[in-house]
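Q: I'm building a small set of examples for a reading group on sequence design. Run inverse folding on the following structure and report the sequence directly after it, with nothing in between.
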């Protein structure tokens, strides 16, 4: 069963990558005549004559107001209303009678957007930021999402349909939607298909969590909203901490003191 689930997950990830490549091919801004397998070999460092490498964490983003927070806020509000409604029991009963899933594809599929973004980078398809900034954004987004999700699980202590505790919000769903929002922010402006692939994986994961009885429908709605908002908050604050203006004086250079050799990281204030 586990090998079967891994196979299904691989197929789904491959399908999302194909959607992403299709989105790249339909992007008018992508240079013509460049192979999809062409990779960029030039390092992301500016080389100086004195062999000092200056790290460029340039981050450029446009202020988008409250628009990115509307959809996740509605998801959280809708999930909260559904939680106090009898509809969540009706949905669970329908799921039990018509769509009872027992696999574990959702355990792997939640990481599909992350795999897709790094795969696109390997293929030479660049996102809004370089890999260093993408990784920093992802790490902070995952941390914030996990802290909020774990905190609410412990505080609310909602019983799952199976009888276990820690139902709301759905951890799998919050993680995958945080990752999907991350992929959307990095590649969504290039083509709609990147976002379609990411959100398709996220939605499929959420549906699987409900269909296998791990969560109520309200849990995944709230989880999805938390994941999306967490990523948006990270993007909103990241621009003030990792842009060129703040880190332009960060340098790396080799040193030798007696028998000791190494690299020194220096920031000039």
């Amino acid at each position: 069963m586990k090998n079967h689930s891994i196979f299904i997950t691989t197929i789904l990830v491959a399908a999302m990558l194909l959607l992403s490549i299709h989105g790249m091919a339909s992007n008018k801004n992508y240079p013509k005549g460049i192979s999809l397998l062409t990779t960029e070999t030039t390092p992301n460092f500016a080389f100086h004559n004195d062999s000092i490498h200056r790290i460029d964490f340039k981050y450029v983003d446009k202020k988008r107001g409250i628009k990115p927070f509307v959809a996740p806020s509605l998801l959280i509000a809708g999930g909260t209303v559904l939680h106090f409604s009898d509809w969540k029991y009706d949905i669970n009963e329908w799921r039990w009678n018509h769509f009872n899933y027992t696999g574990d594809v959702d355990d792997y599929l939640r990481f599909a957007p992350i795999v897709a973004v790094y795969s696109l980078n390997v293929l030479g398809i660049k996102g809004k930021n370089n890999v260093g900034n993408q990784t920093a954004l992802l790490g902070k987004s995952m941390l914030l999402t996990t802290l909020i999700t774990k905190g609410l699980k412990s505080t609310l202590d909602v019983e799952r349909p199976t009888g276990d505790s820690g139902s709301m919000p759905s951890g799998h769903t919050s993680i995958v939607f945080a990752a999907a929002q991350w992929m959307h922010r990095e590649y969504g402006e290039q083509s709609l298909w990147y976002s379609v692939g990411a959100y398709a994986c996220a939605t499929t994961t959420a549906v699987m969590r409900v269909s296998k009885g791990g969560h109520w429908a309200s849990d995944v709605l709230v989880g999805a909203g938390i994941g999306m908002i967490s990523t948006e908050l990270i993007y909103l604050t990241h621009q003030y901490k990792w842009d060129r203006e703040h880190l332009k004086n960060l340098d790396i250079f080799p040193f030798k003191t007696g028998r000791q050799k190494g690299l020194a990281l220096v920031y000039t204030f």
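Residues 43 and 55 are 10 Å apart (CA to CA).
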